[in-house]
Fold this protein.
Amino acid sequence: MTVSRTTILASVRPWGLDSADLVIEGEAIAAVLPAGSGRPEGAEVIDGRGLLALPGLVNAHAHADKSWWGAPWVSYGGEATTQGRIAHERAERGALGIPSTASTERVLREFLRHGTTAVRSHVDVDLGVGLDGIAVLREASAALGDAVEVEVVAFPQDGVIRREGVLDLLDRAAREGAESIGGLDPCLIDRDPVAQLDGLFDIAARHGCGIDIHLHAGGDLGAFEYDLIVDRTRRAGLIGKVNIAHGFALGQLPPGRQQALLEDFAELGISWSTVAPIRSAPLPWVAMREGGVGIGLGTDGVRDLWSPYGDGDLLRVALDFARLHGVRYDEDFAQVARLATSAAAPYVHREVHDLVPGARADVVLLEAENVPDAIVRAPRRELVLAGGRVVARAGDVLV
Amino acid sequence: MTVSRTTILASVRPWGLDSADLVIEGEAIAAVLPAGSGRPEGAEVIDGRGLLALPGLVNAHAHADKSWWGAPWVSYGGEATTQGRIAHERAERGALGIPSTASTERVLREFLRHGTTAVRSHVDVDLGVGLDGIAVLREASAALGDAVEVEVVAFPQDGVIRREGVLDLLDRAAREGAESIGGLDPCLIDRDPVAQLDGLFDIAARHGCGIDIHLHAGGDLGAFEYDLIVDRTRRAGLIGKVNIAHGFALGQLPPGRQQALLEDFAELGISWSTVAPIRSAPLPWVAMREGGVGIGLGTDGVRDLWSPYGDGDLLRVALDFARLHGVRYDEDFAQVARLATSAAAPYVHREVHDLVPGARADVVLLEAENVPDAIVRAPRRELVLAGGRVVARAGDVLV
């Protein structure tokens, strides 16, 4: 039997609204009361100082297993193509000790410092490292007491069909509990879209796991891949189980084609994740919202052999998303904040992720006037709670 | 006679190189010595703790006169067109007390907090506020003891030819010492490019001031305006006196057309400034560098009636510039850092702006391993010196 302790996170402004006390029992929020309206005896009280409160940030697309964050600077090398980067990474990662629990933990701590308390991480699965990266990610999360909850996408970064044995690795990953298997550019990398997609859908259907597939192709080629995925999702009945990551083509397609695809996505529960790249075509995000097509925000890789960029701050990804989509009105900023938090619950298999009773007590406090102010400034995270525990304060991780 | 005091900024890594002591006499750097190699008696020593040192950041394109930074949040309104925003701003600014010395000082302090010690600010000049904004900017700078040095572009935000009397205002601004006069979209706003440009060049030629003109037009229309400006710069002999701000068309033009323009720009000393907008076409920045065409980086407006974005951090603009141009190699990051600092000297009329003897002692210290690390993380500014004075520490302004 667990003894449930009571904590009051007092005088915070959930979503920038009226001051409230969050009553936390053990790991979960038990009640949200007007500030000062009665505090149970013996409860620990944390002074929220009138700060803005948001739910913990959700990183819907990370690569926590392959960063050199915290190691000495690694000057960039390799060819500037997807295949060039794949090859460069496979050649160099061993010398950098990738994957390792230590480097993965450093990335998770950086996420936590910035208020992220749940992550869906793609983890490289290939003939070189096998499933080692998955074990490493779970160990790193456990080392932090699951302050950052992780879920795994077993990700065939080096290709699926073109590498004999990778489908077996994905099958094993799914059998051993990976929440999703990934895929990568069925046309551009494997050059055999039917074989890759049939292989992935077969595994997902047998194990009941999700599919979360990287698609970099633009324009008509990207749309062709979406069609193949829609078709297989419907046939396999994998409703609400498929996510498309990046999907640069969607923003490039004519409105009529976009709309037809969005209807399919909505019907089949196919969701989207984006890292809001600075030069990408904006998503039809208003139509996606109205049509019920989910959008998750992610950091992508942080300081890895693909790119030296990234600091693990999902709130800055939300800012980039807002800028990329020309957001200027308060209500749209609020929508962006929800994409980074409560609306991302399905990406980490939570029923509810919000500042409401029943949710895990993941809370981020910021010195901000309101939600738009928090997005456009992305100020320091003053306090981060994960599962009711204080895990970061004034930008420093405490666990 | 001024008594010159000596300060040693000890144990810093200029540009991430070997540890050095900066010997500062009064406002200027007198010497850069290997760390610990002899410190004059009686000198004040500031411990630089091995931090990375850069020259003060230079903001080559600001609008410091019209921000509501520090005031309660102003929800966005107005139409999402250039003309819509101009009209919205003119209707609402008075109620927000814009322009005022207090609000302008708040913006300058925010610049300073982030390590910017010199600013070229466009200042709205129109039939409503006349030249009040210029006086306000100079007062705000003086209130900070010129820690942030400002120079003025008298900016006809509401148009030139379409508003009878604006040319006279610009003429008066130039006569009274504005370093440059501005212009705005001669085609799209004034709809009379020859009249606007002839008017501006006439004033600049008579007063010897610069021209720094906002051009938003894309593609062929933008290129047409560049041609008109090249032609007039050559005829008026205003070599090194003309800057084009935004100039979105340049990145959109075919390489041959770009190259021909860059040759003209180089010959005439026409420079460029950009705020690295998230969806703009990348500039041909390598060709510009090789051809000797200057590029300055700016924050644009910060939280004003045009847009709620911006936090005044020029290092983050440098980061956006790097991302927009796909920078990945260390030497390119170093070039970007120079754009934000030493290479921007001409934008604020400095002969030299660097960590070298003779330069004003404007120094920013950051906890970063090297220059690329400083750009991609844009960490807190640990110490900022302006004219030899410590003006900010740990992200807080001290003046």
Q: What stands out?
A: The longest strand of chain A covers residues 6-14. Chain A has a mean pLDDT of 96. Chain A has two domains: 6-55+354-397, 57-348. The radius of gyration of chain A is 21 Å.
